[in-house]
Amino acid sequence: MYSADCNFPIENLPYGVFRPSAESEPRCGVAIGDQVLDLSAAAKAGLFNSTEHLGMGKCFGESTLNSFMELGRAAWIEARTTLIALLSGSNPVLRDDAKLQAKVFVPLSAVSMELPARIGDYTDFYASKNHATNVGIMFRDAKTALNPNWVHLPVGYHGRSSSVVISGTDVIRPRGQTITDPEPAYTSIPQHTPCKLLDFELEMGCFIGGAENKLGTPVDIADAKERLFGLVLLNDWSARDIQKWEYVPLGPFTAKNFCTTISPWVVTFDALAPFAQPLKQDPVPLPYLREDQKSDSVTSYNISLQVGMKSEAMSEFHTISNSNYNALSWSFPQMIAHHSYTGCNMRAGDLMGSGTISATEPSGYGSLLEICWKGTKPFNLPDGTVRRFLQDGDSIRLSGHCQGEGFRVGFGHCDGKILPSPAPKTY
After folding, report:
1. Which residue, 402, 222, 400, is CA-closest to 321?
2. Domains in the chain, please, with CATH?
């Protein structure tokens, strides 16, 4: 049994990769209540023998979810149906077999989590109009806040998959080229310093599944939904002062490649289906980006998102932002369709970030850049200290959930703590 505010009821059943102990090998699992169902042990016990996808049990014996992701939607639906049946209180297979329970269940509090997949590629988008507008106003003006292309395509850039880490991994403050001038100029003389304007970004990450499309063959918008495996919370840490100097003309580089943190449990789109809601788009995009050729709407989701922050002197996280997934202006199927339209091949385990999710009000902004409005509006933490950007020892926690009637579909936490930049090499 579990409480109504449990993140992982039977309506959720998110997938992850865990270690039961420090000495054990990583294996695939599903979170249920305060337990993890060891899918490898369940497969060995024959609990998936009746499934039509005979490779499913083998996939669950691997150390990542990639092979399972690659099986595609029909297998995902079958696995979910099987799991719901096995975990139902009316099913005696697990309910009445204490020895089998001991083999396949591990307390959630006892496990350590790993990345859920081998992430071959990571792409970050810029899909929240509120965030893009805020940043445009800061660095340009209200009339030209959005670049002309923004309302016609999901803007994105290729990130660095090797520096995607699991929740709880410390974040080392990066060093890079920075300038003291208010704005970059030909007369600017850069220094090599620790980042002074370190920031978080509240995002959602989408894992791609299904069979890889052939190089040169786009994923049609009608098929893009079939490639969506599930969502995680994502914090794309950002070094604002390094970015300010380097990002023209080619965009984010070392200001973004030092660390991206994700939550460990992948919540499937089947679990999110009850919380889907239409999102109108104006202007209506080109046909290859229309989820429904007869409609001006795409599918969004009602996912409440929170950002908590604490200093080393604080024992609890203090909420600094309340936002919602429905503040995104582009959908993940549209991102896939656009990403692949030039012929890019998308593989199981690839990760896409939504970009910073900001609500319309300051209480729902998704970064310190916006909350403190480029450092001009500092705020106080409960310990009495002032913040404009992140200081060493600060921790950020992203959390999110969908609220149903008597249950919630939760994502858990996405945590990271800032550690000091190491001493540089002397020349």
Report:
1. 400
2. 15-114 (2.30.30.230), 122-419 (3.90.850.10)
